[in-house]
Write a structure and sequence with these properties.
Number of domains: 2
Largest sheet: 3 strands, antiparallel
Low-confidence stretches: none
Shape: flat
Strand order of the largest sheet: 1-2-3
Oligomer: single chain
CATH topology of the largest domain: Ribonuclease iii, N-terminal Endonuclease Domain, Chain A
Number of strands: 3
Order of helices and strands: HHHHHHHHHHEEEH
Length: about 220
């Protein structure tokens, strides 16, 4: 796992504890990472906002907001969490693991936020900022190059219509989990053909995920 060494190891353990682990009487799991996730989300937004404000002094608020959304969205955070090895380090139930919990983008993104929250409590804002500059903010170049800051659904519609296709349609494939922890699988269809499948904790997020993956099928039209 490629994250800074913690002074308080209990904070790191807490950040890596999915609530499902509490159901198996895991001795290392006393409380889930949800409170740290809540804190980390706020810390992440503040530091990301400051980074973008300084990096792009001439960009208006609307563009900076779009850049920030692209940097802190589920897919970006999950990508970084995977690179850091957080999935393999998670404490979770055997059932959660069996259903792909260690590679679940939503779960990985939540864990990333929890680690940020734990690091903030352990080492302060400056060290979190250095960590994010090294591990997350390097994604901004790819985001700008591929215009990933654009709303994926709107962008996909522009792309397929420019190619002479019909407006994309979104179809729910599966919906599972309790109301407080839903997971939706949605496929995007163009001209009657399935183009890509997305997963998210809401229908909107799953649609956006599907649209983003569909855009990767049209590389020549995403510039």
């Amino acid at each position: 796992m490629k994250i800074p060494a913690f002074k308080n190891e209990a904070l790191l353990t807490n950040a890596l504890t999915h609530r499902s682990a509490l159901n198996e009487n895991n001795e290392s799991a006393d409380i889930s990472n949800e409170r740290l996730e809540f804190l980390g989300d706020a810390v992440l937004e503040l530091i990301t906002t400051e980074f973008l404000y300084n990096k792009f002094p001439n960009k208006p608020e609307g563009i900076l907001t779009a850049y920030r959304s692209a940097l802190v969205k589920t897919t970006t955070l999950a990508k970084v969490a995977t690179k850091l090895g957080l999935g393999e380090a998670l404490y979770m139930s055997k059932g959660e693991e069996a259903t792909g919990g260690r590679t679940n983008e939503g779960l990985l993104a939540d864990t990333m936020e929890a680690v940020i929250g734990a690091l903030y409590l352990d080492q302060g804002l400056q060290n979190v900022s250095e960590f994010l500059h090294t591990e997350l903010f390097t994604e901004i170049d790819l985001i700008l190059k591929n215009k990933l800051y654009k709303d994926p659904k709107s962008h996909l519609q522009e792309v397929v219509q420019a190619l002479g296709h019909e407006t994309p349609e979104y179809q729910v494939i599966t919906e599972k989990g309790p109301d407080h922890d839903k997971e939706f699988t949605i496929q995007v269809i163009v001209d009657g053909k399935k183009v890509a499948t997305g997963i998210g904790t809401s229908k909107q997020r799953a649609q956006q995920d599907a649209a983003q993956k569909a855009l990767e099928k049209y590389p020549d039209m995403t510039e």
